[in-house]
Structures are given as structure tokens and as C-alpha cells.
User: Fold this.
Amino acid sequence: MSTKSRPAIGHAAASSLTNEEILRYSRHLIMPEVGMEGQLKLKAAKVLLIGTGGLGAPLGLYLTAAGVGNIGLVDFDVVDFTNLQRQVTFGTTDVGKPKTQAASARLSNLNPDVHITTYETKLTRENALELFKDYDVIVDGTDNFPTRYLVNDACILLGKPNVYGSIFRFEGQVTIFGMPDGPCYRCLYPQPPPPGLVPSCAEGGVLGVLPGIIGSLQAMETIKLLMGSGEPLIGRLLLFDALAPKFRELKLRKNSHCPMCGTHPTIHKLIDYDEFCGIRGQEEPDMDLNVPEITARELKLRFDQGDEFFILDVREPHEYQICNLKGHLIPLGELPRRVHELDSSHEIVAHCRSGKRSAQAVDFLRKAGFRKVLNLRGGILSWSTEVDPSVPRY
Assistant:
């Protein structure tokens, strides 16, 4: 077992623990690697969590339980039923509540000695530096590329460590960016992937246990930084495959030509990260595709009037099993080689879960010569919300 240590990150250690705190943290205190000195460092520390969801849930719980004295929570979302499969901070009665509010209540109940500060706001280039400046460590629990680049750049500008984690389906990764002797996120990913290439957890799914594993590893790395213990994941990317199960480690090198942390940086302020990542905004799920659409209510009205449509479902077979509109299933990836199954003389309405994939399908079909083809705006989710609540949402 390694006994190497680094300088602790953060403020000077707190002066003392109460008798109640000594009892609460007794299993830490009897470990020579932690002891009274390490616990006092944790008590004096200030950690900011970006996101309270899948990764933020285990992070918040374990950092609070460990006695990190000051924890900030940044999130602007509300608790949804789909969150409960993995976001273990929340319970069924929290559905509909702001996540920061529900998380703060849970964490304060877990450890009332920890000071919880909530920021019910979206992290932006306008507020990031102000939010980060008083914290010792920033922990990235986000799930989108614009925010990851924003967190990275703000940390580099302020000289803050960035404990990074990401998850998708059965795989996750953890590392630490922003240390003087280590790389930053831009060293690993100089350019974001093309918009839509990497699906989100909402589109691609995630095994509920996985964020618990990856978030706990992030919590461990944060605690090591705060105490100055062990060998933090600086310059090392830890990869986890839950199906194998197997851990792998990749060496990361600081890029001397990195525009953010290199020898001669060219980025000196926060930028427009949606533009950098080629994203126009969450309110425009079909990106730049300008395709004809029909709403769920309009489609229902036309059905009631006796109009006939060919319903094309471009989701995956396992999604069709969850719920369907009794349409003809051709997954988007199979559409080019199965287009012969469609009759261009019929009026076609294509749908997917939320409208994004079906917009791509409509765009493809129109370029293939189909003229009577519409995209169901909002997908089968909108049908469930606006027309038939008995259709499950997922």
C-alpha cells in the first residue's frame, strides 16, 4: 500500500473537533493515515459539487458523511421519477422539488455539522468564476460537453483542482484535472465531438449502480486531495468497465501546446461553450434540421377525423418493448437499407422518444424523394403527455 503524500489542498486545518464529532468520525480517527490531523483538514475544507444527480448523489453523501466542513451544490434541475433509478440522494417524495433543496435536506440530516450552501442556478460563463473562487476543490458531476469545458476552463483560470468523472451505460472514467503538474480536460479532448455523436444518459441509458461507483471514486480522490494523502489520479485516467468488470489506467500527459494550460495559453477568459461545442440550445432538440412537423394533438385530431397515416418508429427494439404506437419499427441506423419497406405514396409520420432521431429520419427520407413525411414533435413522450397518459414515459 502506497504511503506517498502530497501537500493538502485548501485552508489551514480547523482547530478542534467536538466530542460528538470525535465519536462520529472515530473510524477515521483511529486510522494513522487520517487521524486527528486529517479529519481537521476535512472539517476546514470547502468543496463545490457541479451537479447533484447521478455522480453528485454519491459525492454529496460520502463527502458529507466524511466530514468535509463546507459543501456547495450547483444545480438548476428538479427531481424527476427517472432520476430515482440512480440518484440515491432523492426519494419518491422529492419528485418535483428542486434538486438542490432536496439534496440539502438529505445531507443536513446525514451530518448536521456540515455547512451546505445551495446555488439553484445553471452554471454559466457569467457566474462560474464567482461561484468557484471561494472553494478549494471543484468536482465535476455534469453530463454534457459545454459544461465540462466550462468547469475545466474556470478551474484553470482560478488554479483550482477539477475532480472529473463521467458515465455512460456500463462504463465510467475518473481523473483529476487542473493541477500544476498535470493535464487539463482540453489536453485529453482538444475538440468536442460533433453534436449528437455521443448520446446522453437520457438517450443511451446508464446502469443505475455505475454512478455510485464512479461518484464514490471521485469522492475518494477529493478526500485524498484535501488531506494530502496517497497518490491522486493526476496524469492518470482510470477507466471502469462494469460488464467485465475491469479497471484500466491510461497515462495522461500535459499538452505543452494546450490553449488553456500549455506553455503559451491562448484562452484567457471564459468563452461561449454552446457555440464551441456546436450546440444551439436545449430548446432546439432537432439542431439545424428544418423538417415538417406535426404535434401529438394535431395527429390525434386527424386520426379522429379518419385520416390515415403510416407510423414509422425509428427507435431501437428494446425501446419499442417499453411502449409503442403500434407503428412500423425501423431503427434509425437501419433506415437506409430498409427504406424499400416504405411507400412514398402514403403519408408517413416518423417518431422516436423525443423527436430528435425521427427528425434525422424525416430529413433522410425527404432527401430520398419522400414528400409526404412528417416528424412527430416531441416524440412518443409528447404523445404520452398530450394525448394518452397510459403510454409509459421513459
Notes: The two ends are 44 Å apart (CA to CA). The chain has two domains: 19-276, 293-386.
